[in-house]
Design a protein that fits this description.
Blueprint (H helix, E strand, L loop, with lengths): L1 H26 L7 H13 L1 H5 L1 H7 L3 H53 L1
Helix pairs in contact: 1-2, 1-5
Length: 118
């Protein structure tokens, strides 16, 4: 049982590190970030809920688990930073799209006005 809990948390940490890398790639323009990525992030975090709740007890029973839980906390911190950056990038893109939409509407009005004068 000892190895299975430690291994389980280790696997969750590997998943989170891969998802952090994927999120950073998306931030760097080397990939897309969509709802499936959000679901993929939520899955390992949800799986760890029971272990985190019982962490104090589990750490006394399984001393090897301490390092993995510390790594998990670090991964969550990194993921939070990456998600905050993603949120700001999406806000900036939305503002850009709204500005472009406004520009196109204005251009359309100018085009209609030119047609009326010809």
């Amino acid at each position: 049982m000892k190895d299975s809990i430690v291994e389980y948390v280790r696997n969750v940490n590997e998943k989170l590190r891969a998802l952090i890398a994927r999120t950073r790639d998306s931030l760097g323009g080397r990939g897309n970030f969509d709802v499936e990525d959000v679901r993929a992030i939520a899955e390992p975090v949800g799986q760890m809920q029971t272990i985190v709740t019982d962490a104090a007890q589990l750490r006394t029973i399984h001393p090897d688990l301490d390092g993995e839980l510390e790594a998990y906390a670090g991964n969550l911190g990194e993921m939070q930073v990456a998600l905050d950056q993603m949120r700001f990038m999406l806000i900036a893109r939305r503002a850009h799209i709204e500005a472009m939409r406004s520009h196109l509407e204005t251009l359309g009005m100018w085009t209609a006005a030119v047609r009326l004068t010809q």
